[in-house]
């Protein structure tokens, strides 16, 4: 189903909600200086920096004016900027984004720290970049259809508040709309647990390697002394 335009305002007004943003993500491509990069392009609003831990390095984030004017602006990650230009600060440069055969020109207004660098060091491969653009602009271009909301809560918010939000959304949705929610903290904890396990495993392997190497050096030294 789909939500009415005032659904987001209704969610934002719920007690203990810190920020709320439409959140839609599609895989696409970013073309910079005739170089093409795979990217996860997210349609969001200006509150996304209050929901996700986005570290702004240069320029600015999205603004309410960008959303109202459906501006073709984008916040890009530093890794993509550096691969294209050899430097991280490319605020003011124009790029082309393409999703599902639809493309348009966007202006870079902000640069954030690369979000996938930690994952790349863990998995040992290059992952698609993550970029953020006004959901209103992407919706107008039929690139993305908004079907999700990202919401951040005050610490210690009880579970029934999330149920309350589901009810608010159902009241502001077309007939037949189905609403469900997921707590991303669970995914974060699972990932951190896996990451810690891999770290301990790697440390154990390194310790065993150092022990074996030490024994080898010791044997060599004893053999040399015995030969003398």
- Alpha carbon gap, first and last residue: 86 Å
Order of helices and strands: HEEEHEHEHEEHEHEHH
SS-based structural class? alpha+beta
| Biggest beta sheet summary | 7 strands, mixed
What proportion strand?
25-35%
Tally of extended strands? 9
Describe the structure.
The chain is 41% helix and 27% strand. It is of the alpha+beta class and 228 residues long. The termini are far apart. The relative contact order is 0.18. Mean pLDDT is 81; it is low at 119-125.
Topology at a glance:
Blueprint: H1 7-12, E1 17-22, E2 24-32, E3 35-44, H2 48-51, E4 56-59, H3 64-69, E5 73-77, H4 78-85, E6 94-99, E7 102-112, H5 117-123, E8 129-134, H6 135-140, E9 149-153, H7 159-171, H8 184-227
Parallel strand pairs: 3-8, 5-7
Antiparallel strand pairs: 1-9, 2-3, 2-6, 4-7, 6-7
Considering the chains and any ligands shown, give keywords for the structure.
two-stranded antiparallel ribbon, alpha+beta, extended, 8 helices, 228 residues
Can you give me a brief rundown of this structure?
The chain is α+β, with helices and mostly antiparallel strands.
């Amino acid at each position: 189903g789909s939500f009415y335009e005032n659904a987001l305002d209704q969610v934002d007004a719920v007690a203990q909600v810190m920020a709320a943003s439409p959140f839609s993500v599609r895989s696409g491509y970013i073309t910079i200086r005739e170089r093409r990069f795979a990217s996860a392009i997210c349609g969001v609003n200006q509150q996304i920096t209050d929901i996700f831990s986005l570290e702004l390095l240069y320029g600015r984030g999205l603004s309410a004016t960008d959303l109202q004017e459906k501006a073709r602006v984008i916040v890009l990650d530093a890794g993509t900027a550096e691969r294209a230009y050899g430097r991280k600060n490319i605020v003011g440069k124009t790029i082309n984004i393409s999703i599902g055969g639809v493309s348009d020109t966007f202006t870079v207004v902000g640069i954030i720290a690369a979000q996938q660098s930690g994952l790349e060091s863990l998995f040992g491969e290059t992952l698609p970049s993550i970029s953020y653009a006004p959901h209103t602009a992407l919706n107008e271009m039929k690139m993305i259809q908004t079907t999700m909301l990202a919401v951040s809560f005050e610490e210690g918010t009880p579970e029934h508040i999330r149920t309350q939000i589901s009810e608010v959304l159902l009241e502001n949705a077309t007939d037949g709309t189905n609403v469900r929610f997921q707590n991303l903290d669970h995914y974060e904890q699972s990932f951190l647990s896996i990451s810690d396990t891999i770290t301990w495993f790697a440390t154990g392997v390194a310790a065993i390697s150092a022990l074996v190497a030490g024994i080898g050096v010791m044997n060599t030294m004893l053999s040399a002394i015995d030969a003398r």
